[in-house]
Amino acid sequence: MDSRRADQIADALEELIFTGRFGDGDRLDEIRLATEFDVSRTPIREALQRLVASGLAAQIPRRGVFVRQPGPVELVEMFETMAEIEAVCGRLAAIRISDGALEELDAVNRRSRLSVAENDTDGYYRENEQFHRLIYQQSGNGFLAREAQRLQHRLKPYRRIQLRLRGRLQQSMAEHLAIVAALRSGEADRAASILREHVAVQGEKFHHLMAYLKTQAPSGI
Amino acid sequence: MDSRRADQIADALEELIFTGRFGDGDRLDEIRLATEFDVSRTPIREALQRLVASGLAAQIPRRGVFVRQPGPVELVEMFETMAEIEAVCGRLAAIRISDGALEELDAVNRRSRLSVAENDTDGYYRENEQFHRLIYQQSGNGFLAREAQRLQHRLKPYRRIQLRLRGRLQQSMAEHLAIVAALRSGEADRAASILREHVAVQGEKFHHLMAYLKTQAPSGI
DNA sequence: GTCAAGATTCGTGTATACAAGAAGCATCGT
DNA sequence: ACGATGCTTCTTGTATACACGAATCTTGAC
Lengths: 221, 221
Hints:
Domain HTH gntR-type (chains A, B): 3-70
Number of helices of chain A: 9
Protein name (chains A, B): Transcriptional regulator, GntR family
InterPro entries (chains A, B): GntR_C, TF_FadR/GntR_C, Tscrpt_reg_HTH_GntR, WH-like_DNA-bd_sf, WH_DNA-bd_sf
Helix content of chain A: over 70%
Strand order of the largest sheet of chain A: 1-2
Oligomer: homodimer
Order of helices and strands of chain A: HHHEEHHHHHH
GO molecular function (chains A, B): DNA binding; DNA-binding transcription factor activity
Keywords (chains A, B): DNA-binding, Transcription, Transcription regulation
Number of strands of chain A: 2
CATH architecture of the largest domain in chain A: Up-down Bundle
CATH superfamily of the largest domain in chain A: GntR ligand-binding domain-like
C-alpha cells in the first residue's frame, strides 16, 4: 500500500515509543537509526519529522530530536481533552445518528460482551476502538471525527492498559450500553455526559494503575 | 530564532496557501519551489511534509504534494469543531480562571473597543486572537489549549475575513463582553454556550460572505 | 588541581547525485 | 484513423557528500 519507506519507519518508531522501548528524553540518533533500519538518513529524517508533528518527539535545532513521553500532568490533560471531544461527538451524534449506525453499535456491543465473558482485554479493546470510532463518525462532522480519531490513536496505549483493572471491563461494557441507549433516544446531553465520564474515568483508572505499578516495579510500561 | 531554513519555507508556503496564491489542487513542484526559494530540494521537501501534516496539502506517493483548500462543507465542519472546542475551553475556564486573567481579558476588550471605534478590522482581529487565546489558556489544560490554538491558526484567514461584514465588529465586541461576564460570575454553561454561538456565527457569516463574493467576482480569496 | 580557551570530533542541516516509477509522446500495427 | 505498446522524459524517493554549529576533550595557565 504505502511504498514510501519513510512512512513505514515512522510507524515503526511510533510503535517503539508506544511500547516504551524509547524512554522520555532519549535522543533519536539519525545515524544509528539509519544503520538499524538499513536505510539512509533521508527517510529517517522524514520519519522523525512526522513524530515531531504528532507530538511524540520534540526537535531542538542542531541538537536532534528527542522522545517526549507525556508526564502525569499531560496525560491527565490529554484524557480530559479526549473526554470533552468525545462528549461533543456524542452530543452531535445523538441528533444525527442513523438507524444503521445504531445497529452497528449494537453489533459491536454484542461482540464486546463476548470478549468480556472471556476476559479478553485485547479483543475488547479492538471492539471498544470501533465503538468509539463509530460515534465519531456519527457526529456528522468529518473534520471533528478525524481529530477525535487522531487523539484516540495518541491515547491508545493508555486507554488500553487500564482495561486490565479488575472489574473495568464490565463497567466499561455497561457504560457502552448506556451510551447507545442515550443515542437511540436522542438524549444529546445525556449521551455527552455519559461519554465524558466514560473517558474521564479511563484517565483516572490509568492514573491509579500507574501509581499501583510504581509501587510494584519501577519499570516502564 | 529558528535557523532552520525548512521551517521558514514551511511558514512562507503556508502564508502563500492562506492568501490564496496557491489554489486548491495546485501541485507544489519541488524543483520549482527550490529554485524560487534559492535552496535545494531537501528543505523544500521537509517544508512540504509539514504542510501535509497540518492538513494544508495532500501527498500522493510518487506523484507529489497538492494544495488542499477546504471546500464549503469542510469549512463548516471546521467552524463547528472550533465552536465546540472553544465552548469546552470556556466551560472549563469559567471554573478555573484567575482574577489576573479576567483583568487581562478586560484590558484586551478595552483595546478591542478602540479598534471597533476606528473600524480597524486588522487591529481588532489581533486583539480578538489574544482574547480567545487567553480563554484557551485559562481552561487550565495546556494540551487542550494547544489544540485549540492549532485549530485557531488553521481557521485564521476565515475568521479574519468575516469581520469585514457590516456590523460584525460591534456584534463580536458585544459577545466578548458577555463572555467575560459569564466567566467572571463562573457561569460555566453560559460561557460555553455564548462562546459556541460566537464562533459558530463566524462560520455562518463567513459562509454568507463567500456566497456574496461569488456573486460579485469569481476570484479566490 | 582547577578553570579556561582552543582544537577536534561528532551530528545535524543542506546540497547534490543516483534510482525508480509515472506521465507524455511517438511509432507501429490493425 | 485509432489504439496500443515501447521509449523518453520528468519528478519523486533515496543515498551520499559537504557545511556548519555544538559538544567534548585536551592543553596550558594560574
